Predict the structure.
Amino acid sequence: MTKDEFWKQYPADKKEKKPLTELFKEPTSSKKTSHSLDASVTETKRDDVGSLKYRVPYSYEGNKGTLLELLYSKFPYNDTDTIVDLFGGTGCVGIWSEYKKVIYNEINPRIKDIFVLMNDIDGKTIAGNVKSVCDKFKPETKTGYMNLIAWCNKFISDSVKNGYGMKYDLSIAILTTCFYSWNNIIRFNRSGEVSSSWGHGKTKYTDENYNNIIAFSDKCKTKTVTVLCENYETILRQLLEGKQNNKKFIYADPPYLICEASYNDKSSKWGGWQENDDRQLVELLKQLDKHEIRYMMSNAIFANGKNNPFMYAFADSKDTVCDITDDKNRKECMIRNYEL
């Protein structure tokens, strides 16, 4: 069965005159997303974000939506003009920050493409078409949810084989799955397919989700954004080899070694973070310090009854400043190489 045949099983409602593929032939925003570390784009001004400050469009493991105020109080705004969000995820850290220039990097291309969607397409169009996907598939039911997952993975398979360019369609569909998945989490297997479990009807796409998407997409369009899909080491080595990068602020929120998440799971195509990865990242951060490039890393030194002694030692070293959240069950730290 082709993806078009699969899609035709779920006819559009009477109010929808165009399928998603027609709506997304061209971006509805005049803003273009840059995909080069040194590229620049035209900044689009929007003033209607209003009271929806710090809203996150969807849930992704490691999301920093609830810690943004604390993070921002420690950012070196006065000395830097660009944030490099090294492990970008939803992109909320860079987008809601005071920085006008954001370099977003995410190694998972499926998650990266959702961020590109938020940048390129009008927020109301995105939010409305998520609703259309919900109406087509009925993912509040297990059958409807599994059909949506099947459609996503068929699209992924066909894209790999035939090079389909309709990435916005796929991003809308994957985004929709998170509103009906277990704990609202998007997961991927070793083949890069969506593998999120059904949420048993306990979660759904709400008006708040709708408004969050619009607010976040609108905020994206007030920034100068560069999007990358690279290993974090590649980005850091480019910065170390370049010139005049001391105006860039590096924010690193890597997978936490002692926490359970899909990005620590070796069965995930983009997972498998191990102790050696912690050590490699820290060594590169030390190199940034030698080049007078400011950085902050979020991590956990205690969680789930486990300690991370290596990260604790780095946080406690004479060359770093560390702030630790006050939670008896989880000690999350913000390690930086500068004083405020």
